[in-house]
Amino acid sequence: MATYTSLFSSLGLEAWCAEDTSDTPLSMTDLLKKIQGTESEPESLWELPFPSMDAFHEACASFPQSRDLTKGLEQGFLDIKDNLSVVLDPLTQPLSWFLDGALYAILNTPWWIVIPLLLAVVFVVSKSWKLVVFVGISLALLAFIDYYEYAMQTLAIIFVCAFLCVLFGVPIGIAMSRSDMMQRLTIPVLDMLQTLPPFVYLIPLIFLFSVTESKLYGIAIILYAIVPVIRLTNLGIRLVDKDVIEAADAFGMTSRQKLYKVQIPLALPNIMAGVNQTIMMSLAMVVIASLVSAPGLGVLVLQGIRNLELGVGLVAGLGIVILAVILDRVTKASLARINAAQKQ
Amino acid sequence: MARDIKISIRNLYKIFGPTPDVALAHVRRGMGKAELLEKHNHVLGLQDINVDVHEGEITVIMGLSGSGKSTLIRHLNRLIEPTAGEIEVDGEDVLQFDENKLRKLRRERMSMVFQKFALLPHKTVLENAGMALLVRGYSVQDFEAEAKKWLARVGLEGNENQYPHQLSGGMQQRVGIARALASNSPIMLMDEAFSALDPLIRSDMQDLLLELQGELEKTIVFITHDLDEALKLADHLVILKDGYVVQQGEPQDILMHPNDPYIIDFISDINRARVLRVRSVMEKTTEAPESCDGDISERDNLESVIAMSEGDTNHTYRVMRKGKQVGVLDMKELVKALVPTAAAEGNERARY
Prior knowledge:
heterodimer, A: MetI-like fold, 2 domains, B: 2 domains, four-stranded antiparallel beta sheet
């Protein structure tokens, strides 16, 4: 007799409870109990169990166990999975192409083209020779210890993912800034993406896409890294001086003119701060995503953990730090340049 | 003097709150601002405003903060939508305009100058000055000459390629004025345009505005909380208090015949000798005076007449307009006019 048996009998549900008792799955604890043959019987109020699903199940076999809940969720997901894949697969296919293309391009172009090209990009966005020298030395160091390929793979993935984050994030942020309704609907989603541990959304992604496809980790990175650029675009546009907006209205700007000539230029410092955050978060996620076959420095870290190769793991970690510093310095330098150009 | 009416405001109401229509009914039944706020939690912004703005004149709307003056000027180009009433510009009801017509009105017929300048910080002075033309789709090359002309006109030659943050407040507002002038619109709305500037620069800017106005004859609606500024600039003065018009008319007339204790209070502290003009205190007559100590213009202020008479109250002057006599000024009358209205009428109101 379990604690809540009397509850079910008083409700007249004994017949329903007795209907089936056999095919519920056994949990490990149940199994242990069965083997040990000790049917624990609460004797006092002190040991009264919380009226949970499992406690009710004990009293009435027809009542679902909590395990059924997770199982049901899993079953439900598996049922819609095929249909979902039909829609999502073609939609996300370009992501695979981008990632594979970028990886192929960066690995098949000789280093003496790639490194000067990267340095040129650094100079264009930062206009600082000091930074160019710093980035040059860092990349040379990585290449010297034969981590060039891994570092370039990581960079290629970050470039593609951060670019797509900006491509989608900025318009979403603009839409949020223009409609309070849109903002109310989007913020809970952003909060969830930001607080959900990254491992959690890797699980459904693994079900949906095959682990061999590069879009799997691409999606994981984009979902994780897109949040700051959306948030800061929204914030930046909302923070644009009300007086300037009023002047734009008073001179008869259309809302398109207002957006491109006033709001986006004035929100640019905030948007760039968002891009900086997005790039840093892509880097964080690309390491975790090596669990689902993302190439790059993360693979070495994983190898270090799996094979207990301390040295490999540490050096790869150091490589990631160097990449992080490079990306951060370069984006911050361009941000500073924008800020200086429109100091009020 | 009877110029055409450019903007006509009729029975304009503005109530802020969730259900302005309900509140409007209460106001029409005579509920006051304080009661409306307390009982219905609506703010009465404007209450039964009727103002005619004449073409080519400077109409100054004056009031203290919270009197609704900035709200009122924003109704003219519908940056704020009224709760009830009519606004006609050149005989067309602005409130009936659709989005396109309204945009055309804002682009071509009305320009605005703001208290906080509201320049685009990421554009050069030249691009800011040409903003109205940029909005209409012209390129920088197209409007460069026009923008440069107006920048030069407000005294900003050579600053074209600087950014607003490199200029002082007064210079930034000059850009604001150039921007409004370059739009070539007949109506200029100026929302406390000089209030953020320090006194000397403010005075300079007022002179600049009067000088430009003498040349361009725009229809200007000017908002201010500063009575001296209002009296200096106004052809027509509208005094607002708590969202309604206390008195409006020619500034000299308001000074000589204030019809409300609020206004008497307001004008008691100003330098009347500098503000009042001969035509307001003279005796209107075309007959030559018995003795005459000289000719003065009807537009002279009393200060200059006192200086001319060297303080002698026995003098009498002929007042002339375009070479003809229009009146006679006795210095004794002039001195009487210098006493503020309240004191002159033996008003018992406490004045301190």
